[in-house]
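Course assignment 3, question 2. Fill in each field.
Student: A.L.
Task: Predict the tertiary structure for the chain below.
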Amino acid sequence: MVSRRLLRIKTLQICYAYFKSSEQSVSQSEKELLFSIQKSYDLYHYLLLLIIDVVQFAGSRIDLALQKQVPTKEDLNPNTRFIDNRLIKLLNDNTDLKKYLNDQKLSWVNYPELIKNLYNEIRESESYKNYMSKENSGFNEDKKFISDVYSKIIINFEPLYQNLEEQSIFWNDDVEFVISMIIKSFRSFKAASNEEVKLMPLFKNEEDKDYVKKLFRKAILNHKEYEELISKFIKNWDVERVAFMDIVIMSLAVSEMVEFPEIPVKVSLDEYIEIAKYYSTEKSNIFINGILDKIVGHLRKDGKIKKTGRGLIGEIDKED
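Answer field:
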C-alpha cells in the first residue's frame, strides 16, 4: 500500500529529526520510521471506517424521524439509497477490515460531532444530491459515489485534518495519499464480492520494506560524506547557510542513486526534487535540482553510480 514516494517522505522526516536530536540512536530512529509507516496503514483503515460510521449515522437519523409523534411524508418514506449503498455494506462486512480495526482499537466513537458534521457536508454536496435523485443505480454507481465522497468531500474536510493532527503527529501529511489508496482499493470490490475481499497490504512486497530500511541506514551512516560532497558544489554559499532540510533531501537522493542500482537516476532525481517543493523553502527544488545535477556528473565520472536492470533506463545516453 505504502508507495515509494511516501517511504521517501517518511525517511526524510525521520532523518531530519535524527540529525536535529542528540538523544536518539540510529536503532531508535529506525523503529520510529517503521512505526510512522505503520501509522499510515492505521489511517488507511481508520478512514475506511469513517464512511461506514457516517452511513450508520445517516441510518440513525432515518430511525429517529420515523419515531416522531407526527412524522412527515418524507419521514415515512425515506430515501435510503445512501444507507443501502452496496459498497459500504461490503466494507462493513469485510473480514480484514473488522479484524484490523479491532486489533488496533481504532474507532470514531469519541468524535460524534465530526461524524455528524461530515454527514451534513456530504448531504449538501452536488454529488450526494445527484446520487440520491437517480431512479435506479447499480453497484458501479454506488462505488463511484463513495469514491467521489472521498476525492471531493472528505479530502477537503478541514475538521478532519484538525482532528487527525490532534490524534497523531504521524498523520499530518498522510491524508491525501491514504485517500488515493482507498480509492484504488475500491477496484477490488465487485457486485458479487463477499466479506473476504483483500485490502491493500502494508508494503507492496518485501523489496519495499528492505528499501526503506536500507535507505534510512545508508543516509544516516554516510551523511557526513554526502554533506562534504554537497558542499563542494554549492558555489557562493556557505553550506551552513543552506536550509538544513535541503541538505537532508540531497543526502537521501545521493544515497539512493549510489546504493540502489535498480532505481534509475532520473527517478531518484524527479522524486526528491518533487518532495523538496513541499518540504523545504520556496525555491529549494530549483536549487536542489542544480546541485544534484552536478553531483550526478561527478559520481558518474568517479564510477560511484552503477546501474543494473531497470536502473539502466536513461543511462546509455549518459555514457555516450
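Instructor remarks: Residues 4-11+28-188 form one domain. The mean pLDDT is 92.
Grade: pending
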